[in-house]
Amino acid sequence: MSETVPEAERTVEFRGVPLGQIETARSRHMWTRSAVHVAEDGDLVVTGTWDGTVTARDVDSLEARWSVDHPDHAVGIASLEGDGDETDGDETDETIIVAGRGETGTIAAYDAGTGDRRWRYDTADDVGEAVKDTVFYLPYVVALETGTDADGNERLYAAARRYERDGETRRWHSTVYAFDADGSVRWTYETDASPIALDLDAAGERLAVGYNRCMGEHDTGLVVLEAGSGDLEWTWDPGTDGDRRVGDVSVDGDSIAVSSHGDKRGYLLGPGGAERWHVDLAVETEIDSETLYAYPNHAYASDGRVAFVTGNTYAVESRETESRHPNEHRVAAFDADGDLVWDDEVRGFVHGLAATGGRLVAPCAQNFRVRDPDTHAVRWFDLESGAGGYERLAGNATAAAVDSGTVAAVEEPVEYHDEGETRGEYALRVGSLE
């Protein structure tokens, strides 16, 4: 990696509103418990909390416009420009889509203005019900993606999965969906692998699906589907041993950026999966007689630039180590030829990268090996230059969204096991990057 870009001064003052109570996080990372989304060209912010409460707030006042109870933990939010009713004459009325993790694994659509539920779909009907009463076994809608097809129709794409284990036998059940705006299922694509990410090309013609855990008949990390029909176009895989494959996918024109959990590299692929280039991100490295690595968890490609974000350090022989991989918790951007343009620290674990156009927003939680509260922050970067800024939070930043200059993040309280002090609160934080 190159010399890092110095961390910018804070340039945004975040406003906040409490989100109620939540179990305090510890040194280790918690499962995804919160979601946030910015809609209506930056004028509406929607939060989803661990208990299923979904609340829409006007950005300027942060006063609630509406609040509803989603059937599951609300773990993902997206929006459609229309409501799917071609006869009502209202082409600008947005629909808020909420993804759930719980008994039903529900995807539900709510009117952006009123919160009235427009439709509901329970993915547990396809992936099956939990066989054990723990979070990891629950049906889980892991990704949502929205876009417009070649005919101008709004579409929603979603990926749901369920895990089960019987002794040494582990299984995944998963379904990728295409919905019309009115909730009608257009097609499904089922596998026995674990999807982790979706991305749609700008023309609405191809849907890229990243699979993280492949331990059954489905044995490929990237699947590209024809978005209108769900037909398989092509596949790609890092070709590594074990069941770990892909961490994230991002489509940019006829290219697809892929972060590989298999070999800890970043790839840029062309049509048909032809490799244009790959880069080492956090590959296995000898440090103090240990072999260390970190997973590249996020990828974002736009206008010929590609950024990758890496996560926590792990040791090959043990999950415990006192050392750190030199490229853990980093963001690195590359040009169309695969040459490094800039890189910087994100310092803490990034649950989910938010991006729009040429801007990246990273909600940074704790670095559980170092346990430094200064890592708790929302950080943003310009994809072209690496310039940006940050706003530190007392607690963990665990979700973020950005649109039209409005940035929103969810803060969760944390108590490190060796401190006994609770830092931060469960709250929504909102600011403007303009």
Can you describe what's shown?
With 434 residues, the protein is an all-beta fold. 1% of the residues lie in helices and 52% in strands. It contains one helix and 35 strands. It has one helix spanning 124-127, and strands at 15-18, 35-39, 44-48, 53-58, 64-69, 73-80, 95-101, 106-111, 117-122, 140-148, 154-166, 169-180, 185-191, 194-200, 206-213, 222-226, 232-236, 246-252, 255-260, 265-269, 275-280, 285-287, 290-302, 305-315, 330-334, 340-345, 354-356, 359-364, 377-382, 388-392, 396-403, 406-412, 414-415, 422-423, 427-432. The strands form nine sheets. The chain has a five-stranded antiparallel beta sheet with strand order 22-23-24-25-26, with no helix packed on it. β8 (106-111) and β9 (117-122) form a beta hairpin. It is globular, with a radius of gyration of 20 Å. The chain starts with 14 loop residues before the first strand and ends with a strand. The model is unreliable at 1-6 (pLDDT under 50). This is PQQ-binding-like beta-propeller repeat protein. InterPro entries: PQQ_b-propeller_rpt, PQQ_rpt_dom, Quinoprotein_ADH-like_sf, WD40/YVTN_repeat-like_dom_sf. It holds the Pfam family PQQ_2. It comes from Natrinema soli. Residues 94-261 form the Pyrrolo-quinoline quinone repeat domain.
